[in-house]
Amino acid sequence: MLYREVGQYKTNYAADMAVFPILQDRIGIAVILLVAFVVIPLIGHDFLLNTVLIPFLIFSLAAIGLNLLTGYAGLLSLGTGAFMGVGAYACLKLTTIFPHVNIVIWILASGLFSAAVGALFGLPSLRIKGFYLAVATLAAQFFLEWCFIRVPWLFNYSVSGAIEVPLRKLAGVPITGPTATSLTRYLVVLSIVVMMTWFASNLVHGRIGRMWMSVRDMDLAAELVGIRLLRTKLLAFAVSSFYCGVAGAMMVFLWYGGAEADVFAIDQSFLVLFMVIIGGLGTLIGSFFGAALIYILPIALRAIPQAFGLPIRPAAAEQLTFVIVGVLIIVFLILEPNGLARLWQIGKQKLRVWPFPY
Amino acid sequence: MDLLYKIFIDPFVQMGTAPDLLVQTLWDGLVSGVLYSLIALGFVLIFKASGVFNFAQGIMVVFAALTLVGLHQHGVPAFLALGLTVVVMFLLALGVERLILRPLVNQSDIILFMATFGLTYLLIGLGQLVFGGDPKVMIAEELYLPRGAIEFKGLGGFVSLQKIDIAAAIIASIMVAVLAVFFQRTRIGRALRAVADSHQAALSVGISLEQIWVIVWFTAGVVALTTGIMWGARSEVSFSLQIIALKALPVLILGGFTSIPGAIIGGLIIGIGEKLGEFYWGPLLGGGIESWLAYVIALGFLVVRPQGLFGEKIIERI
């Protein structure tokens, strides 16, 4: 009824190519941004910001990063956790060496280091693909993890071997370190994620995104029509790792406030891969859906027995969570192998033709 | 210059001067190689027959061993528990085929891969819920597995071989031989090979894919049980095994995803390579390189030969 594009004529090419061609979509995104930037800071309390929204946004960004690589360029990677780690450690080193430069700049710049490392480990992708490539990226995962533990220079020779996040201020307000409030951290994370999502959207809708997708669909054919495979694949690895690196830096500096190397273990890679696949391969919005489902689901599952006052041991609840998450993953894959983003599209289509079935 | 000396000459001098240590290291490598091979074997069986990259193979090993030990703890005699565990693995295979593979038939590889991830989570949770999450001792004595070590003098020192490792190697060889005969000589084995070659062609000559999948998952389950018993007897039955099972992945790409001899030889190469590397070259880098050396060996190998040692040549057409 409300969601209808009747009468919205496109009169120039720019309008035809727009990311949100329908007025209602534009209104929707404006409302979401308004809620995120204005309403939530007004009503949000520490629990909501710290344990739900900040991690959700950070995981969304990591999922977008992996989605660019796996969903758009068709290259399966299991090294996401390690690339996030590279970002975090690079950020720590940068802000230690140049403490007076704004930390937000360093968070973004640390992505560049991650991108370089990612491109390096992406080199084998020219020769191998599919699951063979996934195992090759495992080499990156385990090698980098080893570096995070064995190279003390990376964590500033701290005794515990952990990253200790220093206090950094932006315009006099602390945004990292122990005194930063969750609200300021939330706003910084939100700004970065919104900006980078906008950038990713432009990237995948443009020439580069099309190159990636043609490589994904059939790389031999793509090569024949003149796409340089090496460049395209390495670019995908670099951009993807850039996103993961920024997500990793934010994770440590703006969420945990300190972390050890095992944060970037293989489990993290798998978690992000879940998000991408449950959300929908090759869709940006799916990355957000996937992050929401996979990250918030266990929190909700833990809260449910408490809410009903069921006497369940914490250990048993933890194990039940595993079982339920496992079953849900399988059920989701069976019901909608194309992910939540596909459900979203179906829903929109239904709304568009409502009250008629088709 | 000094570094080059340490990399290219020093380790070999050490090998020459202390052959007993070399033999011991080789033996350790061989033993862990056998276990990698066994896990890789489970992967290969399933990958060949159903094209599913079964991430759950590692947890299946843990789950099988846990069921066995758990049943025994509840008072079931050892060999009856063994039989019951085999039944459980059969039910698991049946369940996987009915509830996961059948609804997901004809989906892309990555979706099936993810589904086995779900299975992994499910088995982790289920195993912990039913049998508890703490490490358990494998019932090695009750199953008449040998204990102790054979030590012999020579090569300028002592070399000690654990009897359980020898038993593991023998059992693994027997199992591979049985599987080879099963694949080459029996009716079901021929059907399995036909399915591995082409699903559609196999269907068209009347082979039931569903049945084959159950058989192949069950076989992988039995392989997992054997692996679990051997591994459990060497250390203990715990969920940390699942991470070690990831080591089977470089073995797979070294040997090729579809080759059973490849899985065996790849496992041995990786096992020996990483033990030698850790012992002779590890100290140069500060130790602990075992965690990634296998992957780097496999990676270097892949760049030269993308289909693995024995994998079928990858032919691409437009």
Descriptive report:
- The complex is a heterodimer of chains A (358) and B (318).
- Chain A is mainly alpha-helical.
- Chain A has helices spanning 13-16, 23-43, 46-72, 80-97, 103-122, 131-150, 182-205, 207-217, 219-224, 229-256, 266-279, 284-308, 314-335, 340-353; strands at 163-164, 168-170, 173-176, 258-259.
- Helix content of chain A is 71%, strand content 3%.
- A two-stranded antiparallel sheet of chain A has the order 1-4. Chain A has a two-stranded antiparallel sheet with strand order 2-3.
- In chain A, helix 4 (80-97) crosses helix 5 (103-122).
- Chain A is globular, with a radius of gyration of 21 Å.
- The model of chain B has no long low-confidence stretch (mean pLDDT 83).
- Chain B has a domain at 26-242.
- Chain B has a two-stranded antiparallel ribbon.
- With 318 residues, chain B is mainly alpha-helical.
Helix content of chain B: over 70%
Tally the helices of chain B.
14
Number of strands of chain B: 2
Q: What is the tally of beta strands of chain A?
A: 4
Task: Report the major sheet of chain B.
Answer: 2 strands, antiparallel
The pLDDT mean of chain B sits at 83
Helix percent of chain A reads over 70%
Give the topology.
The complex is a heterodimer of chains A (358) and B (318).
Chain A: H1 13-16, H2 23-43, H3 46-72, H4 80-97, H5 103-122, H6 131-150, E1 163-164, E2 168-170, E3 173-176, H7 182-205, H8 207-217, H9 219-224, H10 229-256, E4 258-259, H11 266-279, H12 284-308, H13 314-335, H14 340-353
Antiparallel strand pairs in A: 1-4, 2-3
Chain B: H1 2-8, H2 10-17, H3 19-50, H4 57-73, H5 78-101, H6 109-131, E1 149-154, E2 157-162, H7 163-185, H8 187-197, H9 199-204, H10 209-234, H11 241-244, H12 248-255, H13 260-285, H14 290-304
Antiparallel strand pairs in B: 1-2
